[in-house]
Specification:
Number of helices: 21
GO molecular function, one term: protein phosphatase activator activity
Strand content: under 5%
Structural class: mainly alpha
Keywords: Nucleus
Pfam family, one: B56
Helix content: 55-70%
Protein name: Protein phosphatase 2 regulatory subunit B'gamma
Organism: Equus asinus
Length: 505
């Protein structure tokens, strides 16, 4: 007796107790029957493979019939791969129906629904239990789409918008093996069915919108972006307005989501593809990245720096001028970051020849922005590797324009002296004020110690008594000048730092 559970068009069969038409009888091999009977047997096998088995609650049940189905699927894969003129018109609805019955299903809930959200980087995904059959169904359908006998004009009656929508829903599967097959399948459909292209792009947009603004959870964002990277590469020029809107309203806001690391390489590739197609999009793209720049998440900052370098690799000099000032203000902050990986990644820009040529052409604007951060962190940053990279950057700036470098040095020192002069002026005016004289506490007269003590470099004490306040600034300036001259000499002696190797991530 046939016992089954229906879920839409899906039917799970208990083959052990089945005597009905769905019993998976082991049929003959297609190659063993006369050519006139092969199409009929092919259709029988396709219908036989619409029987579904329980791999979850009782994985050891119906092992014989599971093997019969697996063998039939494997045989059909070989059959359409190595034979021509076997995909006839009656085969199309049978293939699409068999694929739909096996694949279009309600995905299982998250592997940890009551606990922390599934993290693709940390947690093990839930693998599909029925994969031994599903894998062969995917392989068969791909060979069907890629066959030289495949005719889209016939197939479009069965592979329609509803079919595509159900296929896209499967991209949220936790099983990376299934998502990889889905990626290839959707890409083949996009390539062969011109009438479905706009619909596919629209539905992918909708998935992204829900992901950005509602759920912030979807397992297939990286795979969908990988498909889009190939689609964007084929866009005709000039770009349509809808494609530009997609970049600005969908792709760029994807940088806001906290799980960016899962799909960032694919996202960066899509963005760079757009800029290679239309350089005028550079300014809005860079300004959006600066707007979404992470404030407290250092690994995410490193990702942004990686993407920015990829953008600068393809930027036009005329577009660079438009964004260089806000861009290098952000880079100056990154150089000053206490997280050494952020500072290191920013300083590696000075190892990129094309970026250095852009900087050299615009040094008069860029050096005044970068110099304070570089000079200050050459002395204060805790990481010695950062010191070496900063000396390298300063050396390159010095070689570009010695006079500009000297001017920036003097201006920086003058800016540092202003607060000291203001404090000294405030102290002198207070000392001359009668109110200060009335309220000040008299100091005990200074007496030299019985035995002279060694000078402390920090206090500037000496056996002859403390220095006067008026002498403090020249001494500090002298020490600072000596310190800076030492670093300048190091810049000339550390030329090998300019060739520090960097493996782009």
């Amino acid at each position: 007796m046939l016992t089954c559970n229906k879920a839409g068009s899906r039917m799970v069969v208990d083959a052990a107790n089945s005597n009905g038409p769905f019993q998976p009888v082991a049929l003959l091999h297609i190659r063993d029957v006369p050519p006139a009977d092969q199409e009929k047997l092919f259709i029988q096998k396709l219908r036989q493979c619409c029987v579904l088995f329980d791999f979850v609650s009782d994985p050891l049940s119906d092992l014989k019939w599971k093997e019969v189905k697996r063998a039939a699927l494997s045989e059909m894969v070989e059959y359409i791969t190595h034979n021509r003129n076997v995909i006839t018109e009656p085969i199309y609805p049978e293939v699409v129906h068999m694929f739909a019955v096996n694949m279009f299903r309600t995905l299982p809930p998250s592997s940890n629904p009551t606990g922390a959200e599934f993290d693709p980087e940390e947690d093990e995904p839930t693998l599909e239990a029925a994969w031994p059959h599903l894998q062969l169904v995917y392989e068969f359908f791909l060979r069907f789409l890629e066959s030289p006998d495949f005719q889209p004009n016939i197939a479009k009656k069965y592979i329609d918008q509803k079919f595509v929508l159900q296929l896209l829903e499967l991209f949220d599967s936790e099983d990376p093996r299934e998502r990889d097959f889905l990626k290839t399948t959707l890409h083949r459909i996009y390539g062969k069915f011109l009438g479905l292209r706009a619909y596919i792009r629209k539905q992918i947009n909708n998935i992204f919108y829900r992901f950005i603004y509602e759920t912030e959870h979807h397992n297939g964002i990286a795979e969908l972006l990988e498909i889009l990277g190939s689609i964007i590469n084929g866009f005709a020029l000039p770009l349509k307005e809808e494609h530009k809107i997609f970049l600005l309203k969908v792709l760029l806001p994807l940088h806001k989501v906290k799980s960016l690391s899962v799909y960032h390489p694919q996202l960066a590739y899509c963005v760079v593809q757009f800029l290679e197609k239309d350089s005028t999009l550079t300014e809005p793209v860079v300004m959006a990245l600066l707007k979404y720049w992470p404030k407290t998440h250092s690994p995410k900052e490193v990702m942004f720096l990686n993407e920015l370098e990829e953008i600068l690799d393809v930027i036009e000099p005329s577009e660079f001028v438009k964004i260089m000032e806000p861009l290098f203000r952000q880079l100056a902050k990154c150089v000053s970051s206490p997280h050494f990986q952020v500072a290191e990644r920013a300083l590696y820009y000075w190892n990129n020849e094309y970026i250095m040529s852009l900087i050299s052409d615009n040094a008069a604007k860029i050096l005044p922005i970068m110099f304070p951060s570089l000079y200050r962190n050459s002395k204060t940053h805790w990481n010695k590797t950062i010191h070496g990279l900063i000396y390298n950057a300063l050396k390159l700036f010095m070689e570009m324009n010695q006079k500009l470098f000297d001017d920036c040095t003097q201006q920086f020192k003058a800016e540092k002296l202003k607060p000291r002069k203001n404090r000294r002026r405030t102290g002198l005016s207070c000392a001359a004020s009668p109110s200060c004289l009335r309220t000040s506490t008299p100091r005990a007269p200074w007496r030299p110690t019985a035995e002279p003590t060694s000078c402390s470099p920090r206090t500037g004490a000496s056996p002859g008594g403390p220095r006067q306040a008026a002498d403090a600034t020249p001494v500090l300036d002298s020490v600072e000048n000596t310190y800076f001259l030492c670093h300048t000499n190091q810049l000339h002696s550390q030329s090998e730092l300019s060739s520090t190797p960097f493996c782009r991530q």
